[in-house]
Design brief:
Largest sheet: none
Mean pLDDT: 82
Low-confidence stretches: none
Distance between the termini: 24 Å
Strand content: under 5%
Structural class: mainly alpha
Order of helices and strands: HHHHHHHHHHHH
Number of helices: 12
Radius of gyration: 19 Å
């Protein structure tokens, strides 16, 4: 994977030349800031960011498809993937490079939210442990969402199809189980399914709890989708 960092740098740079990425960043920060002001930055409330961290997951369901739709789909549609594959770069380099580049942009996306921690520190006392847990959780969740988007982008030449497929997968695995658990009366079997969904596993991080089982879940699930992306590229090389 010696060439993956080169691809990652190129991918990160491409985000800053895309107006779509700037729009996604602006919408994310605006919505996250609104959630922070309405739920966590209020007199008499605990000095924590639990509700803000919880809002991050919902926002990522909608932002991730936009950020990942062009990762591989654009390469296929423009024909640059064929050229890329003729160079001494293997499929693993491409997938890891694209993944790291997208994750680097996510760090840039979330970095301004540290201002929320600073504001809480100025007007109160912030326990840094739960904050670190919250950021770890959203980082792991973003890694999983980006790997899903990368896989969907490897399946098609259409960026819109990739975005729609990614959004559908994330909506079905994150929002629908939450709505079912919140509004419906369900049996023990379905409750165990809901408790294993992405939001349920992330909510512990938002509350300041780092569960090693949930950490392993996010890492393993991310690795599975990255592996599937590599295998898809390998299969398309011979088509």
């Amino acid at each position: 994977m010696k060439r993956a960092p080169v691809i990652a740098r190129r991918e990160l740079a491409s985000y800053f030349h895309s107006p779509v990425a700037y729009v996604a960043m602006a919408l994310f920060l605006f919505a996250a800031g609104a959630a922070f002001v309405m739920y966590d930055f209020q007199p008499g409330h605990p000095d924590e960011m639990r509700h803000t961290f919880e809002s991050f997951v919902w926002l990522l369901v909608f932002v991730s498809p936009v950020l990942t739709m062009s990762l591989l789909a654009q390469e296929w549609s423009s024909g640059t993937m064929e050229t890329l594959m003729t160079t001494p770069i293997n499929e693993l380099d491409v997938v890891i490079g694209k993944f790291l580049g997208s994750m680097a942009f996510f760090v840039v996306l979330v970095l301004p939210t540290i201002l929320y921690v600073a504001l809480l520190s100025v007007y109160g006392h912030v326990d840094i442990g739960p904050v670190i847990a919250g950021y770890l959780g959203i980082f792991l969740t973003a890694a999983l969402f980006i790997s899903v988007g990368l896989f969907c982008s490897s399946m098609t030449k259409s960026q819109l199809v990739a975005a729609f497929a990614t959004g559908a997968v994330l909506f079905a695995s994150t929002i629908i189980p939450y709505l079912v658990s919140y509004y419906a009366t369900i049996g023990d079997v379905w409750r165990s399914v809901v408790n294993g969904c992405i939001y349920a596993r992330y909510s512990g991080f938002a509350q300041g709890i780092i569960d090693t089982g949930n950490v392993v879940f996010f890492i393993a699930a991310t690795a599975v989708f990255l592996f599937l992306s590599v295998k898809k590229l390998e299969s398309r090389r011979w088509q």
